[in-house]
User: Fold this.
Amino acid sequence: MANTTEGRGSCVAPFLQLSHFPSRKGYLPGRFCAPVPSLGGSIECCLPCPVTDWIYSGNFETIPKASNWLNVAGMVCTVSLLISFFVLPVEKTSRHYLTVCFIVAVCILQLGFIIPLGAQPEQCHDAITPNDMYSDLTCAFSGACLLAGGFAAISWGFVRSVSIHLQICWQVVPGHKFFWGSLLAGWGIPILFGSIALARTGVSYRFGDTCHINHDKALQDYWGPLLAFAAVSTILQFATVGYCIRVYIRALFRDDGKSQNSSGLPSYNGSIRTVTARQAYRRVHEAIAVQWRGIVVVVIIIVNVVFLAVVFVSMDNTEQAVMRNFGKARPWLTCLVINGGDKNLCLDKVKGLTTSEPTVMAVLILMSLNGIWTLLFLGRASMIPAWIELIRTRFARKHDFVSVDARRYSANTRPYEMITSPPQSAYTPKVPEAAVTSPSLDGDTIAAFSPQTPKDYFPQDAKYVSPTMSFSTPRPPSSGKHHGREWNPINTYARPWSPGTGKAGMI
Assistant:
């Protein structure tokens, strides 16, 4: 609160004379000035800046600061969620581009409240004029983040509502066209309306260290389009939920227990009328189980932003009414003059002239909880063990790989000697023994198989006999009374058996 008497001029305390502040910088419509009759004629007297110090209690300044620090906690939640999306596997996070873009929009909205914490800006350009985006750079950045982030959260909530509605109500799976269209709409619309609002309306310090949109043309340039998108998104959300309830109730009343045909098998002809109540409930349950988190957090953000819009529109209308008719504020202003500027004695007379302090506190606190709601509803319990496993694998001690064979032969270095070294007697290769031996034959049989002449070593001709079990060419079935396998020594390559001698002979 400005307690200086410099510039008071002909005005009584706590007012300051407007003519003593010729500077044209800052947000001039933010001055609270009124004509006061005097001996020298009518003069303009203004309340010192900031005006909120006069219309709210002394503890009001702690509310914006507390909301800013709550946004810091929310930023930690949203940033940790984004890092989890980019680091952890998708099966642990269930990330989606609609979810990621929505969280980024919430982060931009939170930046509008966090930037003033580090910059510590000056709310007033002089004793009666608040700063705006042209006179203070921090105001420009915080106001731009607030406008763009708020509209981006609404637009991505709208896109998400359209996606859920198409999937559940129309069984349409969004593809690449919807992906590029959602990116264009989700970021293009906030940039468009945010730029229009900054250029035509602007932002200034209205209460707290965060710059908010000015009241001039704010409804048609910013709040109107934002409320329109929020309304359409809310309608789509309730239509989707209503459709799921309708499908279940309709199937419940049409289920007459004839879910099977005459053959005893279930009938599925693709009609909704043939779906049993249990099947309809399963379909609704699966859809809601997948999408309920996104639906709830989108509804919460929309409610918060709409609440902010309603409060600001109401505040603008009240201020404009007071500026057009100072007779409403005369009891309060007279009380300030009588009590020498002691605002605490006049707070009861300021009611109805501006938005109440509990309402402003509620809207700031609700806007600050968006990041925390985002983590609670879009975060997954599976992320915690996934992070533990990731940290354990990254920072665990890595042991050198030791081969099992190396451990087995580590006591004896002889297997690692050069190949050219002469083998020792103990390591002379052992001649393999025959694993299979032929049946014992007598001397005549051996003599029959022994070659007698050189021609026996190198026979001139060899007759090839095709085996019976060859399947290289098609063969008709063998005719005759023997349908089984015949014993033919030529085909089977077996040695013939002489019944008289009981010995195997040559063919």
Q: What stands out?
A: The chain is about 50% helix and 5% strand.
